[in-house]
Amino acid sequence: MNRFLRLLTMVGVLLSALQMPATVHAQDGIDQIDHVIILFLENHTVDNLYSRLAGVNGVESPGGQVVQVDKDNTPYSTLPPVAVSLKYDGFGRPIDTLPGLPDPRFPKDLPNAPFLIDNYVPNNVLVNTPVHRFYEHQLQMNEGKMDKYVAWTDSGGQPMGYYDTTKLPLYPYARDYAFADNFFTAAFGGSWLNHMWLVCACTPPWPNAPAEYVAQPQFDASGKLIGIDDNEEWVVTPDGYAINTGVDSFYAPHGSLPDDHRLPPIDLPTIGDRLSAAGISWNEYNGGWQDALDSATDQPLPFVPMPPLSSHGYFQPYGPGMPGREHLKDAEEFVPDLINGDLGAVTILKPSPSFDEHPGYSVLQQAEEHAVLLIQAVMLSKYWENSVIFVTYDDFGGWYDHVAPPEVDRWGPGGRVPLLIISPYARKGYVDHTLYDTTSLLKFIETRWDLEPLATRDAAAADLTAAFDFAQSPAAPSAPKPVDSQDPRPAAPTGEQTSPSQPRSSVALIGLGVAIVLVLAGVAIVISRRRRRSPSVTDS
After folding, report:
1. Which residues contact 211 (CB under 8 A, 6 or more apart)?
2. Half-sphere exposure of 81 (CA within 13 A, CB side)
3. Which long-range contacts (CB under 8 A, 24 or more apart) does 508-513 make?
């Protein structure tokens, strides 16, 4: 929270110290964008967050409510009770050996359909983090049927929940600027692999990974994926590609594993390499980066050390003492760089876990309020008139989405996630239905600075320019009216009837719910984002 207050203070400094230029110097097309900022949040789908944004294809749209079936393809009569998962015990056991706890905040017999989470838990209170791993994700989507999110989760019916969009702090920006509702993650599964795709459009090879790290997916005679008895250790495909969160970086900061259990530095080109070779300035900012380097991690639960997930930090040119290392910074340096005029042409910005929106340890409302401060900081800076802020999510987080991704290759695309395009030249109040994925962000950068593509996927990707109108009068910075906040305290009952937002049981049950929130925060941090301090790994 101290970091949040410091950021608020910095935004105040910007407001008092900087003035917006009176005029915008017109340029042609995409060349009017001199600064690309990618704010990389975590673990939500379009259906989960933006179903109530006008014009978006969400769960309340025709076809948005896909009946969920079990592993034998039998429809559920009602959704299984929402569970707080304790299945990832941190020592590499199969995920089905430990049961989850029922979450008393949700009814036990929810209909087999998407449900509004706000009716039971407001968006300023933690919820559980569902499983979101490479093979499970594909099984959940069930060859595009999108009907096994519940069958292949560890959280009961929770993946079918969605939030009231109009109560999200980022909603005014999605409403007033451009929003892409056909933007998919580049790869199946969780955070780590999609962080790699964000910078290299690739799945890193690990041909000689330790045997205990090699997954054992189950295929039928035709080669169709039919199951996996997953294990936290399984982060590599049978043919030697790293796929799941928990892969430890060879370079610091990393966990305490021996060298032969950490991924060797990746020898593949990155967008940072391309930018550096062209003389284009860039930086990657990671929350908790300096603390991790100093072995003084400051995380939501301080007793859990967790090195940050740096994308470029896994690649050869970015080790300690190497020239590329200067591009890797702590997220706390982003706003000072705005103030001091040191913002690079391309920025990748990853907030600390407290503010990255990851369920289980990051409170949705608080994280989005932090994102709003970052957006306002850019708007108040001298860079706004020639900038675009892409706000998107690294992975689907285990949440349901009814739109199937296109079939491209064995890695993805994966889940459909939100993409907000905030810029003076973004189309105003526009929902872009163009097909995109994470590599479209690379394509935009490559198009703007005439860079060579990194791989086939980014070479073929749409470049996001459909969301812009470079002929329009550039929008001035704005501070959208705050959305209605949510109060986690239940309203006092006014009669015999109890509303969904009121307590549904005794004080003891409410106490259990509070205890579960605390437990899932600890469990999620340990399992979902932790670098390996022990042989265990988890999804993020």
Report:
1. none
2. 13
3. 509/104, 510/104, 512/104, 513/103, 513/104, 513/105
Decide: 392 and 419 in contact? Cβ < 8 Å: yes
164-203 tens-digit pLDDT: 999 999 999 999 999 999 999 999 999 999 999 999 999 9
Q: How far is CA 391 from CA 32, 41, 239, in A?
A: 19, 7, 34
Structure tokens at 223: 């080669």
CB 117 within 8 A of CB 127: yes
Q: How far apart are the first and last CA of the chain?
A: 22
CB atoms within 10 A of CB 113: 15
pLDDT digits (tens, 9 = 90+) for 482-491: 666 555 444 4
Alpha carbon 390 to chain centroid, angstroms: 13
CA-to-CA distance for 518 and 510, rounded, in angstroms?
Answer: 13
Phi-psi map region of 450: left, alpha, beta (phi>0 left; psi -120 to 50 alpha): left
At 494, list the tokens.
């006014």
- Per DSSP, helices labelled H in 76-158 are 134-141
CA angle 84, 227, 236 (to 5 degrees): 85
Integer Cα distance of 539 and 132 in angstroms: 6
